[in-house]
Amino acid sequence: MTPLPWPSTPPAYGSVVLREFTEADVRLALELGEDPYVPLIGSLPAHPTRQEAEAWVRRQQSRHAEGRGFPFVIDVAGTGVGTVGLWLRKLSEGIGIVGYSISPEHRRRGFASDALKAITPFAWTVPGVERIELYIEPWNRGSLRAAEKAGYRREALLPAHQEIGGFARDMLLYAAP
User: Fold this and answer.
1) Domain 12-133 CATH class label
2) Confidence bin at 166 (pLDDT 50/70/90)
3) pTM for this one?
4) Could you say which of 9, 21, 45, 142 has the lowest number of CB atoms within 10 Å?
5) SS3 annotation, the chain
6) Residues 105 and 122 sit within 8 Å (Cβ to Cβ)
7) Do residues 71 and 85 touch, judged by C-beta distance below 8 A?
8) Rounded distance, CA 17 to CA 27, Å?
9) What backbone torsions phi and psi does residue 115 show, to the nearest 5 degrees?
10) What are the domain boundaries of the chain?
């Protein structure tokens, strides 16, 4: 798939600016890798070495060129506090999938909901996106609050929908209004 153009103006909302990954985001990768959950839902190893964190950042940088989507760093005042991505694996069905994670030391400050409020208007500009979905495990109250605060609506409980940490997990399906 040929990559779609990167946004000429970085998506932003509140104190959050969404930007491309840089070498400086190895620090963020190291922080995210210390969270017990984040490595279960993506390609970042748990407790990564510096080399593993660097490789993960390079993978994020390559995902757009591969046509897989738009991986962003959630930046607040020059500091990466988390990641958010618009993934296009279901674009042929008109669906963009959003996913996000916030470094443990930056949680409970509204950055996830602001990141969702930044990426959602951008996602609607991507050719072919007719629906934006978000999947959250039912126990993840912080993520549920962030999605709802950003205007996403709960649509369904999907039993055993996604493998996480080697187990089929129930997921709540949320969609952008």
Assistant:
1) alpha beta
2) confident
3) 0.93
4) 9
5) CCCCCCCCCCCEECCEEEECCCHHHHHHHHHHHCCCCHHHCCCCCCCCCHHHHHHHHHHHHHHHHCCCEEEEEEEECCEEEEEEEEECCCHHHCEEEEEEEECHHHCCCCHHHHHHHHHHHHHHCCCCCCEEEEEECCCCHHHHHHHHHCCCEEEEEEEEEEEECCEEEEEEEEECC
6) no
7) yes
8) 18
9) -65, -40
10) 12-133
**Over the stretch 85-131, which tens digit does the pLDDT of each residue have?**
999 999 999 999 999 999 999 999 999 999 999 999 999 999 999 99
| Whether pLDDT at 73 is above 60 | yes
Q: How far apart are CA 165 and CA 168, in angstroms?
A: 8
Amino acid identity for residue 142 in this structure: G
Which residue in the block uniquely carries the two structure tokens 């190291």?
A: 30
Label residues 99-126 b or e (16+ Cβ within 10 Å = b): bbbbbeebbeebbbbbbbbbbbebbeeb
